């Protein structure tokens, strides 16, 4: 049995200064790094997801309703789509990108990114190795669920941004896929001022809240 940490969408556009900033996003990036430093030996694998929009249709809007439509954010190949510089990627084994051509909230909608196009701990913020490949999609790329299954993962811990959207969707999909799921609430940041409904939905869906 293996255990994995799933880091959801800790990207520049979802942190302070970004186009769709979530209050406390940057602090969560740093807190996850500290958590990994202290607890990385408790996980067999660490993966990260990224919103990675190329042409997501009505997901982007000049007059967003902040429910089904949003301001432009996490456009593939831009600094806004990069992982936040306070997130230490030293222990991340794989990256999964979602939402290229449609709205995608759950990390389980993501596809494995090419190895030459993912960030490393040594790169400078805003840099993008393999930039030419950033806008390419591989229809044969493995999805998050298949990747976790191929590594015999049975339990996942979910952290990241935003508590009431992509973290919630990822956690609930993980439960539906048969994993034991824990969400570390202190390592998430949410959009709504009151996140109790989102937390209750995750608990009712079968996730443990730590």
Can you put this structure into words, describing what you see?
- By secondary structure, this protein is an alpha/beta fold.
- The chain is 21% helix and 20% strand.
- It has helices at residues 25-39, 144-150, 163-176, 196-204; strands spanning 2-8, 45-51, 94-98, 111-112, 153-161, 180-189, 208-209.
- The protein has a 7-stranded mixed sheet with strand order 4-3-2-1-5-6-7.
- Helix 3 runs parallel beside helix 4 (196-204).
- It is globular, with a radius of gyration of 16 Å.
- The two termini are 21 Å apart.
What would you call the shape? globular
Distance between the termini: 21 Å
Computed structural class: alpha/beta
Q: Provide the residue-averaged pLDDT.
A: 91
| Sequence of strands across the biggest β-sheet | 4-3-2-1-5-6-7
Structure at a glance:
The chain has 210 residues and is an alpha/beta fold. Helix content is 21%, strand content 20%. Strands 4-3-2-1-5-6-7 form a 7-stranded mixed beta sheet.
Question: How is the topology of this model organized?
Answer:
Elements: E1 2-8, H1 25-39, E2 45-51, E3 94-98, E4 111-112, H2 144-150, E5 153-161, H3 163-176, E6 180-189, H4 196-204, E7 208-209
Parallel strand pairs: 1-2, 1-5, 2-3, 5-6, 6-7
Antiparallel strand pairs: 3-4
Helix pairs in contact: 3-4
What key attributes describe this structure?
7 strands; 4 helices; single chain; 21% helix; alpha/beta; 210 residues; seven-stranded mixed beta sheet
